[in-house]
Design brief:
Strand content: under 5%
Radius of gyration: 18 Å
Number of strands: 0
Number of domains: 1
Order of helices and strands: HH
Largest sheet: none
Number of helices: 2
Shape: flat
Helix content: over 70%
Distance between the termini: 22 Å
Structural class: mainly alpha
Amino acid sequence: MWDEAERRAALLGAIVGAVSGAAMGVLYQRWKRGQRMRGAAPINAKQVVRLGTAIATVLRRFVELIS
């Protein structure tokens, strides 16, 4: 199955992913709070869907590139 080096790489990747995800969540919440304090318009569902579609397209192209 996996040797020792692959297990360590997977564990390190999981840790880095969890830490970076948590940091992004905290930064997003701080940014969102700042936007509300300034009275900025809230993000609507159409913007979220467009962003998700764009991210999915970029990820699909990246996977095609590395395969």
